[in-house]
TrEMBL record:
The lineage of its organism: Bacteria, Pseudomonadati, Bacteroidota, Sphingobacteriia, Sphingobacteriales. The chain crosses the membrane at residues 7-26. It comes from the Bacteria. This is DUF748 domain-containing protein. Keywords: Membrane, Transmembrane, Transmembrane helix. It comes from Parapedobacter defluvii.
Amino acid sequence: MKPIWKWVIGIIVGLLVIVVVGAWYLSRHWKPILDAQIKEAVIRSTDSLYLIAYDDLNFNLITGNASISSLRLMVDSTRYAELERQQQAPDNAYNIRIENLRIRSFHPRRILTDRRLQIDDIIIDTPSIHIVNRYHAYNDTIVTKRDTQTLYQRISGILQEVSVGNLHFNDIHFKFSKKTDSATNETVLNNLNVKVSDILIDSVSQFDTTRFFHTRAIDVDVPGFRYETPDSFYYVSFDRLQIATLYKQVTLTGLKYAPRMSKDEFYKRKKMAKDMAVISFPSIRLGGIDLQRFVNNQQLYASSLHIDSGTVAISNDLRYPKHPTNKIGKSPHQLLLKMKQPLKIDSVVLNNIDISYAEVGRKYQKEGKITFNRTSGVFHNVTNDSLALLQNKTMGADLTTYLMDIGKLNVAFAFDMLDKKGAYTYKGLLGPMNGKPLNRILTPLLNAEVANANIKRVSFDVSADDHRSRGSLRFDYDNMRLNLLTIDDQGKKGSMKVASFLANSFIINDSNPDANGKYHTGRINYTRPHTYSFFKTLWQSLLQGIKECAGISPERERKIMNAAEEAKKASEKTGGFFKRVFGKKDKGGG
């Protein structure tokens, strides 16, 4: 080797040694300076409310890598108490602990030359976040003094720009504690993962509306969660929650709302006839969310909500006593208006939902059930926003379902959201079906069965409010026959032949048009009892129209009931049946 190359190599090696040793020296001696700067920055930016501590801090000027172990961000309790006395304390206080924080490629030269902190990746392992919420009434007032500085204004004295390529939170443990004078309620989530992409804080990005809190995208993945309601009867759970801010979308899978005990145990503990709900939705997708509005004002505004498949099963047990309540003003659209949570969803889309109602009757102590299978459709303008309702006051719903999984039923609702009496309209069409599947609800509850019924179509058009329903119903059918049943001491089912004959011959027209060619149109003019729910009122109103189509007048019913009582002992049971089938008001409401 020529001597000149020996000198060149020697000089290069020497320079590298100087750089490495210098970097090592600077790292060691800058460490206390950097430590002081970090702690001072936290105190200054949080108005002395938070303190920061850690076990070890390492960084390498050559590679631009750094790490912090056992990092803690803690509330200064003394300062918080002082802010409470000054009525300036925030409702939420944060305590954060991070086992390991790693920074990759923070480009130290740019900090020195341009006052720009640019980082390729930040990895945060096993962070523990505890939020303690204490309500302060003064935070609800507009006169409370607030710090209006933007995040950029807070850091501009130190840096002109902060940018991070990717920020990873791995295996987050989260706890939210809501404290009141009497109790503390806690919500815990474990094993969360969050990825934040393209963070940029500078003089321009603070006004960039395409960014969500200075980020291009935040992806949140929450695994299974279960919450038990305070009354200890129900639980709410889901398998997975995913939030994607770039697409303004939230996806919830495996949602369940169900009792924590069996049906028998539920009613033994309730000791009253009260609806029990079991709800299961495999997939719910909320799209087009205004995330900024939700974070800033807790207002849920979205373009669509999709519920794909699932079941809604409601049941009741009338063997237990009822506790009637006034249900005027508690229709679904009225409850939406009363919600404290501001809400506006342009469309709620249902796809293939199975809905059922089951009831154990008081008299025969058997369960009857009616189902609306494969329910699909759209709710439009689902909102309680007063300004939005001034532009469009109608919430509409167009639904298609299959009664007892056979008869296709189309229904359209229109709710006047601004009407003080809760006005709404509904009209629909039930297509051809055999009447026998209705025995699933008829026989257990009324001890009767449809022997035959060829339903051609049922159409209705009704206007209603809190107090009255008015409209018309058309019921086209033929070959209708009912069997009134009896049960002997051994539990065997038999037919009350005389009573059945009387009902089929003198009370019910076996077809519409009837045997004389007269077509019967049902007129609906139904006064709602104050104890009747919205859905029971719908049914009773339609039943009034069905009775007229079948040729059943109150006078005709009373005459045949009296004749049956005189003709045969079994007619006493027939009379009880007629009272239930043909709409005699019960005392308990529903």
